[in-house]
Amino acid sequence: MQPSMRMHIAAGVPPPTASLVSKSGTLAAKKVLLPTFLWLGSAYLVGLYVSKQLHQKSVSFDEIFAQQNTPEVEEARKKALLVETYGDPRNSLLNVLGWTK
């Protein structure tokens, strides 16, 4: 047994390497978990806010367009946007507000 180990045993103190190993694992976990939870919580809240805003805008646009959806307006829109040739832009992947419908 080394002399330094005898001193620690005689004093009733654990060797310095034992305390570093046991504490570093829990300390490292705390340093990783807290920022991860903060980041995930923030991302969730931002996503929730954006989703709510998109839903509100979608509802308000639907109300506006419902007032103007006459057969004459729809026919003029089909001719102007060449719906028969290029497809309906309402069904496009880029139409974010129409995804829930």
Short description, anyone?
This protein is an all-alpha fold. It has helices at 3-11, 16-68, 71-81, 83-86. The chain is built from four helices and no strands.
Report on the structure:
With 101 residues, the chain is mostly helical. It is 76% helix and 0% strand. The relative contact order is 0.05. The mean pLDDT is 79.
Keywords:
mainly alpha; 4 helices; 76% helix
What number is the mean pLDDT?
Answer: 79
Q: Name the beta content range.
A: under 5%
Number of strands: 0
Which structural category fits the helices and strands?
mainly alpha
Radius of gyration: 32 Å
Approximate shape:
rod-shaped
- Continuous helix count: 4
H/E topology pattern: HHHH
Spans with pLDDT under 50 lasting ≥5 residues? Answer: none
Helix content: over 70%
**Main β-sheet description:** none
Report the span from N to C terminus: 76 Å
